[in-house]
């Protein structure tokens, strides 16, 4: 294991790989065989289930559970008390441990406080999920979705600003000045 920080109340199970500079705060539990990249921040009271893979600089706010079958790329932000799921039709008396649905969160995506991600729906890179949204469908790259069920209300830049596309399909990020193109309902940075 590399040079990372874990508060004395954190529990890290066997077989985990934790990148340099990662911090794991009070009462958090990293279960067996997880891989956490460099410079992640794992807040208070977080549970990361077995074999979960997180990229670099993933920020996990307090009270988040990341279940088996979830993967997050670099620079993902998981807001406080957001919820993943991994069984689509749970019944206490039926064992569905071999039926976990996978959910992938793309690079730079942000998930707002208290949002719920119904399993099996991937979240595109730099997508933005509003606070309290319930995601029931795939979310495209750079899409901003809100509400229950989550509906797309626009597009967001990599710096987290609304992209207002002109008639030719171009938009600038107000903070970075970076330019984006909307074509065939897909956004790319140019
Ligand atoms: C989604 C979000 C980015 C939108 O911000 P914005 O572009 O400034 O949007 P506005 O505040 O101008 O709101 C535009 C409309 O969307 C609605 N809206 C905004 N956020 C919403 C949300 N999370 N869910 C449902 N509707 C929302 C507003 O009520 C408003 O509706 P109206 O036009 O009918 O009045 C922001 O509201 C949000 O949810 N951020 C996440 C915050 C968070 O969880 N942070 C975690 C770290 S602390």
TrEMBL record:
The keyword Transferase applies. The keyword Transport does not apply. Keywords: Transferase. Coiled coil: none annotated. GO terms for molecular function: transferase activity. Belongs to the transferase hexapeptide repeat family. This is UDP-2-acetamido-3-amino-2,3-dideoxy-glucuronate N-acetyltransferase.
């Amino acid at each position: 294991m590399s040079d990372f920080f874990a508060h004395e109340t954190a529990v890290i199970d066997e077989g985990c790989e934790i990148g340099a500079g990662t911090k794991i705060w009070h009462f958090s539990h990293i279960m067996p065989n997880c891989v956490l990249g460099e410079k992640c921040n794992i807040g208070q009271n977080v549970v990361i289930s077995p074999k979960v893979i997180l990229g670099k600089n993933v920020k996990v706010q307090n009270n988040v559970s990341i279940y088996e079958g979830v993967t997050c790329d670099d620079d993902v932000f998981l807001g406080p008390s957001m919820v993943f799921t991994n069984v689509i039709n749970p019944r206490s008396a039926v064992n569905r441990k071999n039926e976990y649905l996978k959910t992938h969160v793309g690079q730079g995506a942000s998930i707002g406080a208290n949002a719920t991600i119904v399993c099996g729906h991937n979240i595109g890179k730099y997508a933005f999920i509003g606070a309290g949204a319930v995601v029931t469908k795939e979310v495209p790259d750079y899409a901003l979705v809100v509400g229950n069920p989550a509906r797309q209300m626009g597009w967001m830049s990599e710096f987290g600003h609304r992209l207002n596309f002109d008639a030719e399909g171009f938009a600038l990020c107000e903070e970075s000045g970076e330019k984006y193109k909307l074509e065939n309902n897909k956004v790319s940075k140019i």
